[in-house]
Amino acid sequence: MATADIENPTPDQRQAEFPPTRQGHAPYDDLEVDEVGAEVILYLRHQVIELQSHIRQLEAELTTHHASQTMRLARYREEYYEATWIELEFVDDEE
Fold first, then answer.
1. Is the model's pTM score more than 0.90?
2. Residue 32 is part of which domain span?
């Protein structure tokens, strides 16, 4: 749902968000909030959903970055140890 849709939901959109639970009653009536309050609740709910989605995306990116960094570190350690052994072999050969 676009931002404009969230800020100005149509009655159908409100109906989809808060379907009637009793004869013509919507849950925001049970919460004793007026229509403007219900719109604010819907807007904030959509914001929370979008932010949760963004957090999941960032967590996935962080996990990927961490795995990549771990692989690079392992490769550099391997190269370092190999270079150390080569250096030790040259030192032993010179003696």
1. no
2. 3-94
